[in-house]
Structure formats: structure tokens, C-alpha cells
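Hi support team,

I've been running sequence recovery on a batch of backbones for a student project. Most finish fine, but this one hangs at about 90% for roughly twenty minutes before it completes. I'm not sure whether the input is malformed or the queue is just slow. I've pasted the C-alpha cells below so you can try to reproduce it. Let me know if you need the job ID as well.

Thanks,
M.K.
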């Protein structure tokens, strides 16, 4: 399933979300310019769990816990992440507020990193990508806009259909896939890179938990049969 857009218009221009997309894109193009130096760059600015858990690899640099979420490993990685951020991030920023949205994004990104690190404490593979922070945005979106629908490209055999899928169904299916993939990954000893499923899981849960305290004060929860939804007073 490839999301195209949602059906909820943003009430304000998503300046922080736009800046995040631009910064991630510019950093990716900088990565492309590095050539043979790129692996060293990724190792230096990516987040390596073993740097915090293995005495022989002890590393007291703090900035990788932030810089890792602005790095990407290829075109599909950056395009997929920025597409999800573009579709879901503007609405969440609208409900949280610009500055608070930036803090929300960074905090859920940090929590996602620690979630992945706990699942693979001694990994020496650099963790990179914005997907953990974006998963936090998805977690908030499902609470803020449970009645929204996602316009989606749905491949069916040799045909591609454009369908409207309820946001709750779309995002819960996404989370279930991440969860079972994460459980399966625990039984696999990886010698190379892979998808940080536990970063997605941790980020999504963090977004669910932080959605209410980060919301604007003039919004409140109204119960409905899908869960909770924010309404204006």
C-alpha cells in the first residue's frame, strides 16, 4: 500500500514539517556527494547501540542520538520516509503547534532509537533514518484523526487501484506488520543492516502516549466508537 494523501486539510502552514523534509533531503544529497567517505560518515553520525553498552566501544559522543534521524541509506529509504512525513506530519503539527511539534518529533525519535537499541544491545551497525520519529507522528495521527481516510495506491495482481482506507485501519495494519516483523527479527542474528522494526514500534507507542499531553490546550478529547478525537471548543 502506498499512501498518496489524507482527507484532513491542515488549518495552518506546516512550517516545521516542511523544514524537516527539506533538511532530511539536503542531508541525503550531501551523503550522495561523499563517495567512498560515506561509510565513515554514517558510522560517525549514526547511532551505534554498542557504543553505549560495550566497554571496549565506549563512546561519549551525544550528538548521534539526534543526527542519526537525519541520515538515510538510499533513495527508497528517503522517499518512503518523506512521503509519510509529508502526508501525516502537517496535520499533527497543526494540532500540536509548531515549536512543540519539533520537540515531539525529536523526543519520539529518541525513544525509537532506545527501543531498537534495547532489542539489539550489542549491535555495531549504525542506526540511521527518520522512520522512528515518523512512527511517533503516525501514533499521534491515529488519535487525533481516527475518522480520517487515506487515499492509497493498492496493487491488486497486475492492476493498481486508488482506494480510500480509514486511517485507523491503515495505521493499525502498518503497526501490526512492524510488530510481527520486529518479533521475528529477534530470532535472527544480523551481520548486516536491516530494518529497525523496534524503532518503528517504540516510536509509534511513544506517539500514542505523548499525543494528549502535547496537544494544544484549546483542543480536547471527545470519545467516539473508534477511540478518541480532538474537537475545537
Amino acid at each position: 500500500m502506498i499512501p498518496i494523501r489524507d482527507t484532513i486539510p491542515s488549518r495552518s502552514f506546516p512550517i516545521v514539517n516542511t523544514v524537516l523534509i527539506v533538511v532530511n533531503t539536503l542531508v541525503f544529497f550531501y551523503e550522495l556527494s561523499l563517495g567512498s567517505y560515506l561509510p565513515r560518515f554514517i558510522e560517525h553520525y549514526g547511532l551505534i547501540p554498542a557504543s553505549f553498552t560495550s566497554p571496549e566501544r565506549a563512546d561519549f559522543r551525544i550528538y548521534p542520538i539526534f543526527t542519526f534521524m537525519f541520515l538515510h541509506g538510499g533513495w527508497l529509504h528517503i522517499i518512503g520516509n518523506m512521503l509519510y512525513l509529508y502526508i501525516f506530519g502537517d496535520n499533527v503539527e497543526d494540532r500540536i503547534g509548531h515549536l512543540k511539534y519539533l520537540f515531539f518529533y525529536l523526543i519520539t525519535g529518541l525513544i525509537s532509537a532506545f527501543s531498537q537499541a534495547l532489542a539489539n544491545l550489542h549491535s555495531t551497525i549504525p542506526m540511521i533514518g527518520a522512520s522512528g520519529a515518523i512512527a511517533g507522528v503516525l501514533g499521534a495521527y491515529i488519535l487525533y484523526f481516527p475518522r480520517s481516510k487515506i487515499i492509497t495506491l493498492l496493487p491488486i495482481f497486475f492492476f493498481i487501484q486508488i482506494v480510500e482506507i480509514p486511517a485507523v485501519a491503515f495505521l493499525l495494519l502498518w503497526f501490526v506488520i512492524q510488530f510481527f516483523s520486529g518479533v521475528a527479527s529477534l530470532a535472527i542474528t544480523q551481520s548486516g543492516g536491516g530494518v529497525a522494526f523496534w524503532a518503528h514500534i517504540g516510536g509509534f507507542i511513544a506517539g500514542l502516549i505523548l499525543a494528549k499531553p502535547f496537544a494544544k490546550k484549546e483542543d480536547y478529547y471527545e470519545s467516539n466508537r473508534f477511540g478518541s478525537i480532538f474537537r475545537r471548543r
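--
Follow-up from support: It reproduced on our side and the slowdown came from queue contention, not your input. Confidence is low (pLDDT under 50) at residues 220-233. No action needed from you.
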